[in-house]
Amino acid sequence: MQKGIDYVGVGIGAVIVNKDNKLFLSKRGKQARNEQGLWEFPGGGLKFGDSFENTIKREIKEEFGMEIEIKDSLEAFNHLIPQEKQHWVALCFVCNHVSGTPQILEPDK
């Protein structure tokens, strides 16, 4: 069974702000599960038993080598991708960049 297709998936995103109040965005890779080539706030899917907060911190560290601090949460929203018949519920956190030089560690995602 596939998240977002066979059942509603849960995605966690981060609006990351650095000390200069600049936002960090990522571009989806050619091998991403959906919406290839689009710009987004980075994040990932929730794994069974994990917390929202641990998920976003882990995903940002694994994919970009950055440590973040969660400051606030935004309202959850439905993310529908009709052309791919996918449905996700997305939660997004406002975060500060704490450390680590941003780098692409998982280029296919």
Structural description of this entry:
The chain has one helix and eight strands, in the order βββββαβββ. With 109 residues, it is mainly beta. The chain has one domain (9-99): Nucleoside Triphosphate Pyrophosphohydrolase (Alpha-Beta Complex), CATH 3.90.79.10. Strands 1, 2, 5, 6, 7 and 8 form a six-stranded mixed beta sheet that branches. A two-stranded antiparallel sheet has the order 3-4. The longest helix has 13 residues, at 52-64. It is globular and about 40 Å long. The two termini are 20 Å apart. The mean pLDDT is 95.
Task: Write out key terms for the chains shown.
single chain, Nucleoside Triphosphate Pyrophosphohydrolase, mainly beta, two-stranded antiparallel sheet
How many structural domains are formed by the residues? 1
Q: Report strand %.
A: 35-45%
Helix content: 10-25%
Shape, principal axes of CA atoms? globular
Strand segment count: 8
Stated plainly, the CATH topology is called Nucleoside Triphosphate Pyrophosphohydrolase
Named at the architecture level, the CATH assignment is Alpha-Beta Complex
